[in-house]
């Protein structure tokens, strides 16, 4: 049976389980086929050339399970409250105004960030946009209070894991003499903001396939676009400061973010997707010579999505019950467990049945490889090409964070990857 046929048949059967809140009528030739809002699920496209997107849709349908659209917007509220309140405290030294937080508990470990003039201006715009995202979700029907989040404690656990330490709130302090303070300066703040921004961006793209209502799906697409745009500015800000040293680690911005990217990549399942501030891996887009990675995409220039379960698994540092890390009491709403994040469906077979726990998307590797050289200038074979996206030294891929560009060298040692192309970042940003 042709693959497209299998896909459409499976979609119909899944629809019985998950279809709801469909504003389209069959008379408009827009069939309410579960998450596939199309009368032509089989193409005009060549599905084998779009397998990354097909796998994201498959993962999204499995991730949705029995959830309703209201459950999905309530899930999104967790992420946007998390980012929005962190950013708002950092920029303005206060929580959301009015009832945007819905009476949710004040985040732990938050304060006004110590920022330069440029950093402050960027922080304010980011915070206001995040507040807008929460407003959108409230208008889209998210009704729950914001969840309890632990910002400083969460980052200390998350970064402890990124440094190969046991992820406790005090591990970094014990190892490096002082805790990580996300609000300490431009570097610590925007490393932290970007860490969450890209979880929001990939999560929002993933939700486009999870939600059934196309009005809200369009909103999620715009939310993902805004988050990616903010992330690109934050990346530019950090790339301009790539060789600045980040306290208390004594490593560069580039190196610390490589570790962050590596740990995010490991916690979302075995596929390779997350990328550092510089990318030398031609399975994604590797810019010749400078390797700057302002906008991480696959070789089709498309950003990747994450399922809610992948986000939960990253933000709770792999906790099996969906509590811990940044979310000490877990997520509000019905979608609150990481279940299924590790199982992966990479093939082009039938859609998984809803709720089976198959909930990861395909890898950027599936989009194929640009055969080097991209231009006469390269890259040909560059450091990190075969195993990593993060372009730092380390062992080959073994599907764990310890091999995703993560270097196990004692952290106070000098950066051990390729020479960071600072001058390029600084030239691009006019510094
Ligand atoms: C779809 O793309 C694949 C991979 O390039 C190719 O082998 C196949 O022939 C294409 N199918 C059609 C119908 O064009
Ligand atoms: C605020 O940031 C500046 C610039 O990085 C730094 O020199 C200063 O020590 C920071 N202040 C505090 C209290 O950390």
From TrEMBL:
Residue spans of biased composition, Polar residues class: 400-431
Segments for region (Disordered): 375-431
Residues spanning the signal sequence: 1-21
Pfam short name (any one): Ferritin_2
Keywords (A to Z) from UniProt: Signal
Keyword Nucleotide-binding in record: no
Matches recorded under PANTHER family: DESICCATION-LIKE PROTEIN (PTHR31694), OS05G0151100 PROTEIN (PTHR31694:SF26)
Name assigned to this protein: Uncharacterized protein
Source organism of the structure: Apatococcus lobatus
